[in-house]
Predict the 3D structure of the following.
Amino acid sequence: MQENENQPVSRDHAGFPWKQVIGLLLSLVLTFLALWIAVGHLLPVQPTIAIIVALAIFQAFIQLFMFMHVTEGTEPVHQLIGILFGIYVAFAVVGGTIWILYYQM
Amino acid sequence: MAESTLSLDAKNRKNLPLEYSTEEGDLRIVGFWMFLAAELVLFGTLFGTYLVLKSHTGGGPTAQDLFKIGPVMAETLVLLVSSFTCGLSTLELRRHNKKGLITWLAVTIILGLVFVGLEANEFYTYVTHEGATLQTSAFLSGFFILLGTHGCHVSLGIVWIAGILIQLARRGITPVTARKAFIVGLYWHFLDVVWIFIFTAVYLTGWVM
């Protein structure tokens, strides 16, 4: 079975740390892009919030894949299920809260 | 179903990075991911609380009165770069380069201290110059609890990395210290992930609305 196969984990020997540098540069670009969109008041409030939240989620996934090696290990499916469940509960709490507030007004 | 790979024989485990080279280390790393999932839920509840309370300023200072772009961006950039240096320390760990690992972890600690200092200064400014304390309004209670919980996590991370540095200096890179250094790296990156959402949901949203 696929999930039981030994996951090859590349050994990073000498060389320029491309993965880390690209992760840093992408994070910086996304941070300043979000700042520019928010502080510049380029768009109405609702689209601005939607865009900066999307940028934050994208940046979180960069951290997860480029720095935290979430897909590594002998059976990464276990940690992926755990983290996905954590993300699901956090989104249910935050999203549900915002939803209730929205319909209260 | 085939036999679980957790019972891989020692020969196959030799192809994995050092932190995964023992079954115990492997299980502890998976266990730490479960802890991070629980932390995600903890911060989720604090974000939910903050978002409910943020419009309840009770006549006190509002987000736009308090938040200044300069100090907030300084904190954000310092923590972002510390996550990068922590990523480099994991890379040096994979290369079995003790000196590089210790150097990058030390840089991460210094950046962490700068971050905590900047955040303490931000809180101090709010309390002394703006009269914005934990008791001033529901908005500020939510703000200080969310940011304070994150700041406490960063402070704990600094002490934790310092402890790992002592072990690395004494024992070198072994399967045990490799696993510890890898796990503390996961913790540190997670704190940067939380900050990304604080930056977006607290500061950017505060400036937009």
Remarks:
- The mean pLDDT of chain B is 92.
- The domain at 18-208 of chain B is CATH 1.20.120.80 (Four Helix Bundle (Hemerythrin (Met), subunit A)).
- The two ends of chain B are 54 Å apart (CA to CA).
- Chain B has one domain: 18-208.
